Amino acid sequence: MDTPWQLQMLLQMLISWTLAANGHHKFVMLPKVVGGYSIAIEEVPFQISVRRRAMHEKAYGLGLICGGALISQRVACSAAHCYAVNNTYNPVRYYDPSMFVVVAGSTLIDQADRHTKEYLLQQIIAHKAYNASTLENDIALLFLNGYVSWRSRAVRAIPLSTKVLTEGTTCLINGWGKVTMVGKSASLQQAPVPILNKILCRAIYMLPVSQLCAGFMQGGIDACQGDSGGPLICDGQLAGIISWGVGCADPGFPGVYTNVSHYVDWIRTMNATLDYSKYWVMDSADLTSGAQRTWWLALAFLLIVIDCCGF
Ligand SMILES: *[C@@H]1O[C@H](CO)[C@@H](O)[C@H](O)[C@H]1NC(C)=O
Ligand SMILES: *[C@@H]1O[C@H](CO)[C@@H](O)[C@H](O)[C@H]1NC(C)=O
Ligand SMILES: *[C@@H]1O[C@H](CO)[C@@H](O)[C@H](O)[C@H]1NC(C)=O
Ligand SMILES: *[C@@H]1O[C@H](CO)[C@@H](O)[C@H](O)[C@H]1NC(C)=O
């Protein structure tokens, strides 16, 4: 590790230019919070986890795909890449919103308590210009199937950032993603990350103004897989969305975040298109009733048979 710092920087720039020039991020680990500490949900009550419904229904705590942040009573902000079917396919297709469950008010990923609230997704509004190769416009709104109650201290919205971030500001990231490159974390983790110099970041990753980077050039603390979509909190506001990085907490490669202040108008515009008069009722019997599931499976099977065999 005696390579001079400048030489390392130069090497990294060459590597990232090569990656960017070839238009792929194959080495990119989609985000974790590495190097953080445990916190209780009451300290970050806007933090949610998004889980794959099928796995979640089989075993509570499984199926974590991403994080997110509540920004109003029925809307959470997350990363578009979390919901894309095939991140290499163009145009990007998204999974059906019914495949996901949002869990709010929970510190532990695998245990619910009296503050825990679950919602289904009525709609996923991913940014139209989300680019799967550059991860530009990596933002999506999650429209919940019901109003979140603010009665519990464990569930709240976070205001959108209105401030211009200055280099060196210490922000916070949270998540249940990988704590090391190996396992996932059962308890919510938080880590402080400073906003890095824009010019340095652009030199490493060639970022547009819609993305920002934060972390430590020496590595050790970062977001990692499973944390994507989660908030970057600066001065109590939602300043960024965990988007991507190269590795997790690797020296020389800080995390990249969607710059939320760049998307405030987009968020307001998209929110205005949502139909707040509609919501499906989340029937928990529907989630757990084996009999009902068997019936639907039988119907689906019948439809497939009819479809395939020309009945
Ligand atoms: C994703 O899209 C690429 C490019 O069209 C295709 O080659 C690949 O097979 C797709 N993968 C899946 C899992 O659909
Ligand atoms: C994504 O960005 C790359 C690099 O700027 C560009 O070449 C490509 O056309 C973009 N893809 C889409 C779907 O806009
Ligand atoms: C984030 O976006 C805002 C609004 O477009 C812009 O003023 C700011 O400079 C951007 N931040 C970074 C770090 O690029
Ligand atoms: C979205 O619209 C609803 C209904 O008008 C409003 O109550 C809420 O504050 C808005 N949320 C955001 C994030 O703009």
UniProtKB/TrEMBL annotation:
<dbReference type="InterPro" id="IPR001314">
    <property type="entry name" value="Peptidase_S1A"/>
</dbReference>
<keyword id="KW-0964">Secreted</keyword>
<dbReference type="InterPro" id="IPR050127">
    <property type="entry name" value="Serine_Proteases_S1"/>
</dbReference>
<dbReference type="InterPro" id="IPR001254">
    <property type="entry name" value="Trypsin_dom"/>
</dbReference>
<feature type="signal peptide">
    <location>
        <begin position="1"/>
        <end position="20"/>
    </location>
</feature>
<keyword id="KW-0645">Protease</keyword>
<keyword id="KW-1015">Disulfide bond</keyword>
<dbReference type="Pfam" id="PF00089">
    <property type="entry name" value="Trypsin"/>
</dbReference>
<dbReference type="GO" id="GO:0005615">
    <property type="term" value="C:extracellular space"/>
</dbReference>
<protein>
    <submittedName>
        <fullName>Blast:Trypsin I-P1</fullName>
    </submittedName>
</protein>
<dbReference type="InterPro" id="IPR043504">
    <property type="entry name" value="Peptidase_S1_PA_chymotrypsin"/>
</dbReference>
<dbReference type="InterPro" id="IPR033116">
    <property type="entry name" value="TRYPSIN_SER"/>
</dbReference>
<dbReference type="GO" id="GO:0004252">
    <property type="term" value="F:serine-type endopeptidase activity"/>
</dbReference>
<keyword id="KW-0720">Serine protease</keyword>
<dbReference type="InterPro" id="IPR009003">
    <property type="entry name" value="Peptidase_S1_PA"/>
</dbReference>
<dbReference type="GO" id="GO:0006508">
    <property type="term" value="P:proteolysis"/>
</dbReference>
<keyword id="KW-0732">Signal</keyword>
<feature type="domain" description="Peptidase S1">
    <location>
        <begin position="33"/>
        <end position="272"/>
    </location>
</feature>
<keyword id="KW-0378">Hydrolase</keyword>
